[in-house]
Amino acid sequence: MTEPSNVKLDHGAINQRILAKENAGDYRRVEQASVKQRTRFESPEAKRLYARYFHSLQLNAHFISEIARIRLEAEQVEKVEQMMRSRLERLAQEIDSAIDGAALLLEREGVTTTATYDAQALDMEVGVISSFGRRYLEALLKLDRLMPMLRTLEIYEVITASEADKRRALYKKQVRGVAMGVRILAGGLRKRMNESAVQEEVRSQERKGGLASRPTLPSSERVAKAAVESPSTEPTLPEALAQVVAG
Questions:
Q1: Which residues, in sequence order, are CB contacts of 203 under 8 Å at separation 6+?
Q2: Is residue 172 situated within a structural domain?
Q3: Which of 86, 35, 89 shows the shortest CA–CA distance to 58?
Q4: I need a labelling partner for 142 at 20 to 30 A (CA). Which of 23, 114, 206, 222 fits?
Q5: CB neighbour list of residue 148: distance below 8 Å, 6 or more residues apart
Q6: Which residues form the domain of 117?
Q7: CA-CA distance, 190 to 31, in Å (whole number)?
Q8: 3-class DSSP state of 156
Q9: Per residue in 107-141, pLDDT tens?
């Protein structure tokens, strides 16, 4: 849109505020290659959901598929991966259905022009490190397509403002819920890894304790007395477990 002399429009300040409010994705420990995808968001809803949840989902999915697989059984990780994949597929289907429904309403009402945004689009190159990140990014782009369609239906009074708000809130909640669900799944696997490490440490201490407890009977009273007066500094099992948990 050409900016008339009596109208002031955004030239990127909105995007700067959106990105400044969110923590940057920390990929310093991620060593995989990534597919660089040019991405453009125009709706305020998709911009904010991308900034807040995309990198969180990618990094949690990376932990599940790469880190947890090193310490846990493959079956446990694959089960969690399938849960993520199924939820992302359902999300895509739900947004696709919403787009198709909105398109039918616009066609029925003879509306041929969709509302557009005057604020500057969030245009950037995104590094995609897994199929889960790719699926989530695709869902965000579909949401970005749906939002102006709902606004157009509202402008032409095909649906009420209240109905438009409800639909926007519903699809934003679904997109947000997937990222939060992946975070919970990653937390569950992290807890299992910690429990597995504690159990392994306990077994290690038990093995050490078993070796130390094999006595060689003393042949003199002097040796026995020295052994009593100089107890072993090896930690007991409860002490070792407490050290592991505290560590």
A1: none
A2: yes
A3: 35
A4: 23
A5: 42, 43, 114, 115, 116, 117
A6: 13-198
A7: 20
A8: coil
A9: 999 999 999 999 999 999 999 999 999 999 999 99
Counting the structural domains of the chain, the total is: 1
Phi, psi of 3 (to 5 degrees): -80, 115
Beta bridge partners of 40: 123
Q: Where is 123: in which H helix or E strand?
A: strand 122-128
Provide the token pair at 133: 């990140």
Q: How many CB atoms lie within 10 A of CB 81?
A: 19
Range from 61-70, 174-183, 185-194, 200-209 carrying the lowest mean pLDDT: 200-209
What single-letter DSSP state applies at residue 12?
S
In-domain check, residue 233: no
Q: Report yes or no on 55 lying in a domain.
A: yes
d(CA 196, CA 210): 21
Burial (Cβ within 10 Å: 0-12, 13-18, ≥19) of residue 226 = exposed
DSSP assignment of 28-55 equals TT--S--EEEEEEE-SHHHHHHIIIIIH
Burial of 213 (0-12, 13-18, 19+ CB in 10 A): exposed
Q: Please name the residue that has the structure tokens 């239906």.
A: 153
Tokens of 50: 């991308």
**Residue 19 within a domain:** yes
Nearest CA among 75, 51, 56, 76 for reference residue 188 = 76
Residue 96 is predicted with a pLDDT of: 98
pTM, to two decimals: 0.78
